[in-house]
Amino acid sequence: MSSEFKLAPSILSADFANLQTALSQCDEGGAHWIHIDVMDNQFVPNLTIGPPVVKSLRPKTNKFIDVHMMVIEPEKLVESFAKAGADLITFHIEATDDPQSVIDLIHSTGTQVGISIKPSTPLSDIEPFYDQVDLILVMSVEPGFGGQGYMDGSTERILNIKQKLKEQCLQDRVLIEVDGGIKLHNAKEVIDAGADVLVAGSAVFGTENPAKTIQAFYNL
Length: 220
Known about the structure:
Number of strands: 8
Shape: globular
Distance between the termini: 6 Å
CATH superfamily: Aldolase class I
CATH class: Alpha Beta
Radius of gyration: 16 Å
Order of helices and strands: EHEHEHEHEEHEHEHH
Structural class: alpha/beta
Number of domains: 1
Strand content: 15-25%
CATH architecture: Alpha-Beta Barrel
């Protein structure tokens, strides 16, 4: 498997009472990114964390902070997360009527921009924006809760996006990230399909030794 892929452990599955330990485990394991799931209990049926947590984590890690906003009206939170220290902010195509304005707003903060898509949303909805984003986040579960299984059809969607990026000569500029049901047993399939970044939550923090699990992903 490609050694160039990045693992982004999701702290949604970590112990919220001790996020410093989660960061240390990511350091010890050699994870490239830290993935932060932001949910508003409106766009998805769960409520998680906001900019103050990102602000508190930023001084504690030099890793790339990957903020995934599963919220309605994402434009209202972009500047707060950018100021808090996010390196990349991803929003959902389904959460706004004006994706272009959200992309422009994120870019204006100096932050990288990602666009995400739910499993049931046609890929054609995000294709017009491939040349304007830094990352495409493919949800391989219905967003809202961790611990779900990887959905059939996700690999085909990854392959489709990779092919479209190649056709536009964007495959070296736009990353494909996959989030949902990523485990040691299916990570190779996802990478081989074209994923550049894997998000893993319970598969990392639900184990006895998260640092060793992170290393196991890279050793596949």
